Amino acid sequence: MLTLRRPSDGDITAFLDRQSRGSFSYAGVGGTRSSAPIGYNVDHNRVRLGEGEGAFKRAVAAVRRWEMFNIGWVTLCWPQAPIEIGQCVGILIPLYGLWSLNACRVIYTIDAAADEVRRFGFAYGTLADHMESGEERRFRLVRSVGVFPSSSPFGQARRAPQPVVAAPVRARFAAGDDPRRLS
User: Fold this and answer.
1) What is the pTM of this model?
2) CA–CA separation, 91 vs 65, rounded Å?
3) How do the pLDDT tens digits run along the chain, 183 residues long?
4) 3-state class (DSSP) for residue 29
5) In whole angstroms, how large is the CA radius of gyration of the chain?
């Protein structure tokens, strides 16, 4: 949804309520569990956050607080929303004199341990009125050697010209896993 003025909290709540009853904007929902469907772009980012149980717990706490959206020019609506299947959140972005409000829904969560690897995270997908179309998985994992955030979005920017979407999206993914904020 593009608007000329910043939407009020009431406008955002009503938009999210409408979107929460709608469908996803893409085929292959849940595709980040394995690999992206044919024809989608995959952008995988990974950095080392630290080592040990303490680093893992801090990384999990950061994910639960949606810290990956705390990059200065993006507003998550609402950061107190729990990360649980079906949860709908909005992303509000100032965009060249306009305001872009987009909705996503949590598709699945990850909280698992096997051998020396522990993982925690979730995937969310774009809903019908989102400017882009696709899915993103965000998780943290710990091995005996360190804690790594991983962001694996896939999607296509169908509803906006590529130059309008590409720079903010690249910046979001590049900044979203900044180890100085997430550890």
Assistant:
1) 0.78
2) 14
3) 899 999 999 999 999 999 999 999 988 898 888 776 677 777 777 777 888 888 888 888 988 999 988 888 999 999 999 999 999 999 999 999 999 999 999 999 989 887 778 888 899 999 998 988 888 888 766 654 455 655 556 555 444 433 343 344 444 434 444 433 433
4) coil
5) 16
Q: Is the peptide bond before 78 cis (omega within 30 degrees of 0)?
A: yes
> Tell me: domain 2-30+43-171, CATH 3.40.190, correct?
no
Q: Are 77 and 91 in contact (CB under 8 A)?
A: yes
Phi-psi region of 35 (alpha: psi -120 to 50; beta: other; left: phi over 0): beta
Tracing tokens 């609506």 back to the chain, one arrives at 77
SS3 category, 19: helix
Q: Quickly tell me which residue has 């649980």 as its tokens.
A: 84
Virtual torsion, Cα 14, 91, 107, 142, nearest 10 deg:
-150
Every domain of the chain and the residues it spans: 2-30+43-171
Q: Which has the closest alpha carbon to 73: 172, 163, 157, 180?
A: 172
* Two structure tokens written together for 66: 């949606």
- The SS3 call for residue 62 is helix
